[in-house]
Amino acid sequence: MHFAFGWCFWDLPALIVLVAIVVIFAVHTKKMKDREKEFSEELAQADANKVEIDTKGKA
Question: What is the model's pTM?
Answer without folding.
Answer: 0.62
